[in-house]
Amino acid sequence: MTTNRVRGRVFGEIADEYDRIRPSYPAQLVADVLAYAGPPALEVGAGTGKATELFAAHGIDLVATEPDPAMAALLARRVADRPNVTVTVSTFEEYVPERRFGLLLCAQAWHWVDKEVRWQRAAAALAPGGGIALFWNADWPGDPEVTAALRAAHQEFAPHLTLNTGPISDPAGEEAWAADMGMPPGFGDLGTRSYRWERTMSAADYIAYLSTQSAYRLLDEDVRERLFGALRDGLGAQVRLNVETKLYLARHLP
């Protein structure tokens, strides 16, 4: 496995493909977040703006931070017609807010932020009573034949990679997930939401989708190509995915 690249920074290598193939997020999630906490908003690790555009469409004042220049360039183009959005090329750890925010949101990226400082940085960025919304998409094949083909190819070429073959279980209870994420005292009013939906794509697009995930980006190129070749041979024409989007909410207590 390649070790001289930072896992959380490999997405800019394939920014266009990432933007094309990665899914968006449920509209109900956006409504639930904005009902929980209001603008101005700060987005952490905005990527190419999949979540940014959904929140920006509500007209909220939003600062979107993204550390990778290639990803940030796509993000800036996506929101070019949104004067309510400011794009800043920066890590969250290095970003110095000029004001306090009512909402901090992070889609698919909180696990890349330094665990030693992320909650302290969130508290410093939020106004008293401001909310934090963290959310991720997780998916697994909807058909057993696809699951079998994935398992066979991975067992042969990349047995160390973990396959999602069903819903991901959270620690039981809101206090438990907060502890699991390392949330310190000073946050409360915890909440969780889960949104189930489906996504169908061609087998070629599914392989392209895998190629945008960090675990596959970090495979040696020849291993990745053998694995994807086996998937091209083993998958059918289409892949149906069950998707679960999980939302975690917390409030910065005054």
Structure summary, number of beta strands = 7
What is the rounded distance between the termini?
A: 46 Å
Order of neighbouring strands in the sheet with most strands: 3-2-1-4-5-7-6
In terms of structural class, how would the helical and strand content be classed?
Answer: alpha/beta
Q: Which shape, going by the Cα principal axes? A: globular
Q: What percent strand?
A: 25-35%
Mean pLDDT comes to: 94
- The SSE order reads HHEHEHEEHEHHEHHHE
CATH superfamily of the domain at 7-137 and 167-197 and 245-252: Vaccinia Virus protein VP39
What is the CATH topology assignment of the domain at 7-137 and 167-197 and 245-252? Rossmann fold
Give the radius of gyration.
Answer: 19 Å
* CATH architecture term of the domain at 7-137 and 167-197 and 245-252: 3-Layer(aba) Sandwich
Instruction: Give helix % range.
Output: 25-40%
Protein described:
This is Class I SAM-dependent methyltransferase. By secondary structure, this protein is of the alpha/beta class. It has a domain at 7-137 and 167-197 and 245-252: Rossmann fold. The protein contains 10 helices and 7 strands. It has helices spanning 15-21, 27-36, 50-56, 69-78, 118-125, 144-157, 174-180, 203-211, 214-217, 221-234, and strands at 41-43, 62-65, 85-88, 101-107, 126-141, 187-202, 238-252. Strands 3-2-1-4-5-7-6 form a 7-stranded mixed β-sheet, sandwiched between helices. Strand 1 (41-43), helix 3 (50-56) and strand 2 (62-65) form a beta-alpha-beta unit. It is globular, with a radius of gyration of 19 Å. The mean pLDDT is 94.
